[in-house]
Amino acid sequence: MVNLGIRVVGGKRMPNGELGAFVSAVNQAKYNQILGEVKEGDQVLEWNGVLLNGKTFEEVERIVNSSSGEVEIILKSEGEKSHRISNLRRYSTAMRDSSRFANVTALPVSQKTLRIKDASPDRAPPVPMHRRNGHNGTIGRNPSSRIYDNVDSLDYGNDAWPNKPQDSLGYLQVAISYDRASSRIVVRVVAARGLKMRDQARRLAPNPFVKIYLLPGRKVSNKRRTRFVPCSTDPEWNQIVEWQVSPVSLPSLYLEFSVWDYDRLTENNALGQVTVSLAAIMPC
After folding, report:
1. Where does the PDZ domain lie (predicted)?
2. Which 8-state DSSP code applies to residue 204?
């Protein structure tokens, strides 16, 4: 996959006798495009929701070459117990240098801790694009930010998480800003605390990740997602997603955050969701 900056080869025999697909080459010139997460030798478990284990070289090649637009892959690095999700765009023109996030830090930011509500959002085909960001940046707090009615909001503090009620599904930290220069909504999904256990009796923690939809209109092109964090009720993502949106449309838009438990073998389970109004970050 030259356009994605990586080459994936299937049909390789693994020590357990099963066929697997692996990243055989990474184009360093497109390092930013592949998010800095993909390494040569990584095993590719899924490609756009299709399991690659057990497939021949030709089958994997056909699956990879039939992809278009954005691509979602699930990776496992050698020596790691956890899997990493990476979301790639086929066209480098759609990607931006991650250092551009520095331009956003000077703008008003709504940074909140949101109480997660019980919900079971519909699943949608994976067509997200996300970027990880290593810059800490100076993100300020905006106490006047308005949150949509079905969200309990608390001002965010690095060490100040609310006490969790017995019936709570947990809390999600996000930071939202609008970059006027490029007409971008920029969302940093920071962390969550107190998520529901996958199996309370056996003390099994979930593999949480977050799906973010720009609403109204549940289009796959408006969907983004984070990578998943293995076996944690207190995951930290510190991951950035963004959308191109004109200023005039901001007051009518919402962001839906749904937290999911990733399961490689069965259906992903919804852990809850919250919805935030973007009217609060409308540029003056």
Report:
1. 1-79
2. B
- CA dist., res. 231 & res. 240, Å (int): 22
Question: Which of 94, 118, 133 represents a domain boundary (last residue)?
Answer: 94
One domain, residues 159 and 270: yes
Distances (CA, A) of 153 to 114, 115, 144, 177: 5, 7, 11, 17
Name the domain boundary from 45, 61, 94: 94
Model confidence pLDDT, tens digit, residues 198-223: 888 888 999 999 999 999 877 877 88
Answer whether the bond into residue 251 is a cis peptide, omega within 30°.
Answer: no
Helix %, strand %, coil % of the chain (to 5): 15, 40, 50
CA–CA distance, 202 with 190 (Å, rounded to integer) = 28
pTM of the model: 0.52
CA distance 156 to 165: 18
Q: Is the dihedral of CA 200, 276, 95, 236 positive or negative?
A: negative
Whether residue 116 is found in the same domain as residue 40: no
Residue type, 241: V
- Tell me the pLDDT tens digit for each residue of 217-250: 778 778 888 888 899 999 999 888 888 888 888 8
CB 77 within 8 A of CB 92: no
